[in-house]
Each structure stands twice: as C-alpha cells, then as structure tokens.
C-alpha cells in the first residue's frame, strides 16, 4: 500500500516540477509581448493567448502538486495542534467527504463541455489566435483526475498512519520508488 501511494505521488511530483518551468516560459513570453508592443509597435494574438494557456496549465496542473506538498491555503486552527493520528483522520475524512466529491463533480460537469470542444476541434475566435482551444479545455478533466490520484495517495497514507505504520519520508520532495 505504501509503495502504491508513493507511485501515485510520483506522477504529481513529476508533473508539478515540469509545470513549474512553464512559469519561467510565461514570464519570457510576457516580456517578449511587451517589448514587441511598446518597442516595435507589433502585436501577436497567438503570443498573448499562449500566456493564458501557460497560466491555465500552471494553475490547474499544479493543484495536485500543491496538495501533495500541503502548500494549499487553509485555516488550520486545530489541525496544526493535532498529533499524527488526528491529522490522519482529518486528511482521510476531508479527502473522502470533500476532495473526491468535488473533483468528481468537476470532472462530470466538464465532460460535455470538453467533448463539445473536441467534436469541433475548437480554435480561437481571434484572427491569428491559437488553434488548440479544445486541448486547453481538456485540462478541465486532467486537473480533477490528478487531484483524485493525489487524494487516493492521501487516503492510503492516512490509513497507514491510522494502522500504526507511517509512510517513508521524502528527500527533497521526491519520493523514491
């Protein structure tokens, strides 16, 4: 069970570290757009849309990575004072009762929207825009899927803690297989 949880987390670790580099690319493209616009009086719809795409990828694919590293925003008045078993119960119940149902709802409610975009291979409505809107919308299915994978890893880790077996520690955020 511990090995399986580590493998699940490794998926989100790799995706999260890869997506983090998109932030640098987004900054470089933003800088380029500004230089082209104000320095050379040139504009590019495709470059401007690529910034939106990169922002969406960074935010939505980085959500599971953020959850994995417990870096999401929350008010933990009681959680921080609990022991490992108390935290395991909160994590287990929070994942089962909140995270998984919300992710399931997002996936279910987005399915038709994404399917419609794929059916027509939706492109940008702007002249010179990017032709990959349907791929961008697919992130609406990928994000909850990655969060559910991370939720399953949290459930498994919580069960290990509740059974008296703590999961192995990580080194620099990367769990070894």
Describe, in plain words, how this protein is organized in 3D:
There is one protein chain. This protein is mainly alpha-helical. Helices cover 72% and strands 0% of the residues. It has 5 helices and no strands. The longest helix has 39 residues, at 2-40. The radius of gyration is 20 Å and the shape is elongated. The two termini are 13 Å apart. The model is unreliable at 168-177 (pLDDT under 50).
Considering the chains and any ligands shown, give keywords for the structure:
mainly alpha, 177 residues, elongated, disordered C terminus
Residue stretches low in confidence (pLDDT < 50, at least 5 long) are: 168-177
Which percent range fits the helix content? over 70%
End-to-end CA span = 13 Å
In total, the number of domains comes to: 1
Mean pLDDT: 86
Spatial extent as radius of gyration: 20 Å
Task: Return the string of H and E elements.
Answer: HHHHH
Structural class by SSE content = mainly alpha
Alpha plus pi helix count: 5
Shape: elongated
What fraction of residues sit in β-strands?
under 5%
The overall strand count is 0
Major sheet attributes: none
Brief summary:
The protein contains 5 helices and no strands. It is mainly α.
Task: Draw up the topology in text.
Layout: H1 2-40, H2 45-61, H3 63-68, H4 84-119, H5 133-162
